[in-house]
Amino acid sequence: MVVRGKFEEDLKTLHEKLLELGNFAVQALDQSLEALENKDIELALKILEDDADANIMEEEINDFAILLIAKQQPVAVDLRRLIVAIKIATDIERMADFAVNIAKSTIRIGQEPLVKPIEHIKQMHKLSVEMLKLSLEAYNEEDLNKAKQVAQMDDQVDDLYGQTIKELLSLAQSKPEQLAQITQLSFISRYLERAADHVTNIAENVFYLVKGKRYDLNQ
Amino acid sequence: MTVMTDKKHTTENLSMKAGNQENAKKVVYDTKDLNLWYGEGHALKNINLAINENEVTAIIGPSGCGKSTYIKTLNRMVELVPSVKISGEILYRGRNILEKGYQVEDLRTSVGMVFQKPNPFPKSIYENIAYGPKIHGIRDKKILDEIVEKSLRGAAIWDEVKDRLNQNAYGLSGGQQQRICIARALAIEPDVILMDEPTSALDPISTLKVEELVQELKKDFSIIIVTHNMQQAARISDKTAFFLNGEVIEFAETDKIFSNPSDKRTEDYITGRFG
């Protein structure tokens, strides 16, 4: 028998809000690559504008979780659910910020042709977005295998980041006149690498939620 | 390569420390294979609990789980119920209180009890506190005065009643009456204080006062408290035992019980999913 029906319902609402924020970040990241590839400044500006929604959603999640803590005095796994929701919301919101950062870099690069194909960046982006989706599934289903997979994918992103930076650095030497764009591309790589780290935090929080212990997956 | 490291080293160190401290602490009550029947009803089943001195041990569980029965075995009050049968051992300071020839009067001099509803005697505040020491043979007015003041101070109610010690205790509020009862328990200088839902009839402020008091008292006494209020157990106890259907399901550090209990049934109970 479910005794705390209202509380269960509230937890579900919180859960849904978090997934909604996650989907928003996925979309923003997708758009940020699209804008970069197509030099679509209009889309980049839209990403900047829409980001306010992510901030509002994050605040709503935090406020709702705090309210539930105050009113329901949750303990054990219930308390972890709320704390984890607050922490995951912060990580997801940060990912939406990276989409904004990428959009800003896209605006700075403008209509100039790219100094090189951005294959590695595209791969990093694909991995990061997949990781985010997988981490949301892991959270939704409390699936530790999926959470573990996320951490493994982060290693690939790190490798790609290393390669990309190496290439961009040598390019900076051979094409110093393109330094401005090369810098922006390095930033974009860095944003994606950081985004993947934030997803790994989400995976760690799924572990904490389920196990009640802390695990470091960022190694 | 992803390395799955369990970051528990910090908590592990902490819990080891707690473990070491625990080793230093003496056991005041050691219950071994305790079984109790009310007629045919098996009310306590194989209870094994070691309760440390100078700690607050909370006993939680749904109605009818045996928690009040258990606390009443600790001062043998449970024997007042006809048709009760007990097996097993309860060692208080190393001696089995259930063995033949154990003087229950001695036990009750060492083990005070506070009940759910404040039950002061229909006497003055002073007489309520002096009653126990008097029946233990203390007649010297000066000594009695000292005991009364010390006990009332110990129960954090001295300042509220010092100017009206000769007034009837019934004139006090419920929260004050309960602290008078605690003072009455302290007056016989017990070793252990048993509390059976001591705040369930009190308002929130009085409840917090009694809770504060319990924290103070554990420096000098061992306290075992039965409570329906789980937040109260979480706030004030060092260890918590979760009883269900006459069994101890889990007995552990309160921090553990309320953050990450080992047993699913404990988790369900403390998160309010049954009971």
Q: What CATH architecture of one domain in chain B would you give?
A: 3-Layer(aba) Sandwich
What fold name goes in the CATH topology slot of one domain in chain B?
Answer: Rossmann fold
Level-2 CATH architecture of chain A:
Up-down Bundle
Beta-strand percent range of chain A:
under 5%
CATH topology of chain A: Methane Monooxygenase Hydroxylase, Chain G, domain 1
- Radius of gyration of chain A, in Å, reads 19 Å
Helical run tally of chain A: 6
Given as residue ranges, the uncertain stretches of chain A (5+ residues, pLDDT < 50) are none
CATH superfamily of chain A: Phosphate transport system protein phou homolog 2, domain 2
Domains of chain A (count): 1
Summarize, please.
Chain A: Keywords: Cytoplasm, Phosphate transport, Transport. The complex is a heterodimer of chains A (219) and B (275). With 219 residues, chain A is mainly α.
Structural overview:
The complex is a heterodimer of chains A (219) and B (275). Chain A has 219 residues and is mainly α. Chain A contains six helices and one strand, in the order ααααααβ. Chain A has one domain (1-211): Phosphate transport system protein phou homolog 2, domain 2 (Methane Monooxygenase Hydroxylase, Chain G, domain 1, Up-down Bundle), CATH 1.20.58.220. Chain A is 85% helix and 1% strand. Chain B is an alpha/beta fold. Chain B has a domain at 27-120 and 191-271: P-loop containing nucleotide triphosphate hydrolases (Rossmann fold, 3-Layer(aba) Sandwich). Helices cover 39% and strands 25% of the residues of chain B. In chain B, helix 4 (125-135) packs across helix 5 and helix 7 (174-187) runs parallel beside helix 8 (204-217). The longest helix of chain B is centred in the first third of the chain and has 16 residues, at 9-24. Mean pLDDT of chain B is 89; it is low at 1-22. Classes of the chains: A mainly alpha (219), B alpha/beta (275). The A-B interface holds A 1-4, 7, 73-79, 148, 151-152, 154-155, 212-217, 219 and B 1-8, 11, 230-231, 234, 258-261, 267, 270-275.
